User: Fold this.
Amino acid sequence: MSATVGFLGLGNMGAPMAANLVRAGYDVRAFDPVPAACEQARRDGATVVDSAAETAADIVITMLPSGTLVLDVYGELLPVAAPGTLFIDCSTIDVADARTAAERATTAGHRALDAPVSGGVAGAVAGTLTFMVGGGADDFADARPLFEVMGGKVVHCGGAGVGQAAKICNNMLLGISMIALAESLVLGEKLGLSHESFFDVVSTASGQSWALTNYCPVPGPVPTSPANNDYQPGFTTALMTKDLVLAANALRENQIDGRFGELAAEIYTRFNQTDAQRDFSAIITDIRDRIGGLGSNS
Ligand code: NAD
Assistant:
């Protein structure tokens, strides 16, 4: 294929996504301020450039930690990119920032999609990410071949910002359900219910959830879950906290009485002060610690 792709943000997620595009035959112009990230991209076959502006290409993908950075980078790129460049932001950012980014891109004569992902680093490496996309149908159709290289499932959710909306709605639900599951497990511990019996009953009863059956926060029942590996991430508490704060802000901005979402953001924000780099399922250890509970897998 002939499209050139600019790629900004070669971190845990961006590096393997860019590498998959190179493997699929795209000419990738990559930039990251961290030299080690650039070295890796070079080894993966990308052309590494010295500034954000030099990534200008037919399609420009951003995979950055915050909305502020996305807007900063757009500020550098929009004036120098060729008219009609398709900007795809895959970062997880505020819906309002995503809409601002899209508006600035279109005002400058370009096209824009928000396309956050789920599936984590493993999904980025394997090229099996889920993309949830906001923006126009024609732009979505043009971007689809790239999504299919980097991902498995691709959903066009609606107009600008609606991809980000899907992402924060899902992660708010996941954060709340992980806390609820952890509280329930700790209560079971206190009442003498083993983790195995809890799992056998609840995984097929009305309290069943993805958090329990795929990502169980205690060792044993789901051997692949981070709890079996001392809560090595997985999905860090820092990233879950970021997403929950985005969701809580959106609840308030939309005047929704979203108490569980607000509380989940508060609980993870506190946990994040001490355990930012542990997997988010380690929240169960915080619940045990705060009640002076059993503190062991009994
Ligand atoms: P990361 O911190 O590993 O990578 C971010 C990269 O952006 C870093 O290498 C950083 O140097 C680079 N960067 C910063 N400023 C830049 C600039 N001006 N120009 C170019 N590059 C710049 O983060 P990550 O884990 O790769 O996550 C990236 C985004 O993906 C975040 O928005 C995150 O919420 C989202 N996300 C992460 C996961 C996950 O499991 N890690 C899953 C889904 C979504």
User: Anything to note?
Assistant: Residues 8-14, 31-34, 37, 52, 63-65, 69, 73, 91-92, 117-118, 120-121, 235, 239, 242 surround nicotinamide-adenine-dinucleotide (CB under 6 Å).
